[in-house]
């Protein structure tokens, strides 16, 4: 099975920020998480590598969706999920943003900047953790994490899936000529 291609995500912090700001959900419920999780899984089945998909709420870490795409994931994948989620929740942005903020993932600079000391291992600045934002709600309401591909792919599959999902949610404009008038 040939893997599906993904576009390459930008490494420019302003562009990453603009992409994140554009991916706002009109609402986010357990049903939304189920739909996004399944869309991610369907897309990721086209890749040969096993991947973990995890979606949680931010306020209580309630698990809304968790699955793997195929056999072969390791316990380390779940550790990566937890670390990526912790980064998104603490800094309110994607782990891809944090990766690029620190010269392509300089973990020593990251740990020093935020004086993390021994707690640095609780966070990951590798792509694949993405904030869920909802229109009219301040802050991050959930986190979507993908772990198992290259980090730029982990990030980009989330971006492209949310973009496609949000396009599908937009109501179809009805032209005046399509409406019968009485």
UniProtKB/TrEMBL annotation:
GO terms for cellular component: TRC complex. Gene3D superfamilies: Haem-degrading domain. This is DUF336-domain-containing protein. GO terms for biological process: post-translational protein targeting to endoplasmic reticulum membrane. It comes from the Eukaryota. Transmembrane segments: none annotated. It comes from Lentinula raphanica. InterPro entries: PduO/GlcC-like, PduO/GlcC-like_sf, YBR137W-like. PANTHER family: PTHR28255, UPF0303 PROTEIN YBR137W. It holds the Pfam family HbpS-like.
